[in-house]
């Protein structure tokens, strides 16, 4: 078995695709139509295009418990998942300029530095730099 | 303050409150990052930080979840991939990232990536060629 896919629940796939590619800089890898206007959309990191794919999954629109869970995480400020970056501070400055909303500014904790932002699709996302 | 921030603060206070230990492991990791191609021994890393080698081993594992040697091996494999993609031969790559024998390099590379260094290199080359042809 191989780990190749990370799924992330989003309320609006098209909006998520725009945010994750235009603001965060991911590249679209797959975009396949499914029933009912849903799509199988996956993204990859530009610097690791054969690495794991990020699936933008419309689950909260079709399965109520997923929506409840997502809302609860959002309200408590918990990140749904996290991405590695080389420099949290630089990434923070770049995203702030693109009007990305941060709930946690770059913070040091032991051997990591992290920050948390809102992906505008229902999730908090954490970026982490290993010190 | 959100529940997440409260939790982070609690974890920080209980797990990451010893600044001198954290400084030691961060300095050790930075040293490995810039010297992974050298013949690094735990004794030497420990002497750099004026600590015993078993103490350093425990600290590194506590804060990074890996032993210094596991971290070093991952670092070397990561860099060997870059060298192979850039066209360096397998033998040159092996010594350039700090391995002492071709056998141990090839074996570890295969364990970590699922392919031998030469198979990995061929695959990367044919992939970039394919991009041009299609």
TrEMBL record, chain A:
Residues 2-130 form the VOC domain. Gene3D superfamilies: 2,3-Dihydroxybiphenyl 1,2-Dioxygenase, domain 1. It holds the Pfam family Glyoxalase. It comes from the Bacteria. InterPro entries: Glyas_Bleomycin-R_OHBP_Dase, Glyas_Fos-R_dOase_dom, VOC_core. This is VOC family protein. It comes from Winogradskyella immobilis.
TrEMBL record, chain B:
Gene3D superfamilies: Homeodomain-like. Pfam families: HTH_18. Keywords: DNA-binding, Transcription, Transcription regulation. It comes from Winogradskyella immobilis. Residues 26-123 form the HTH araC/xylS-type domain. SUPFAM superfamilies: Homeodomain-like (SSF46689). The keyword DNA-binding applies. This is Helix-turn-helix transcriptional regulator. InterPro entries: Homeodomain-like_sf, HTH_AraC, HTH_AraC-typ_CS.
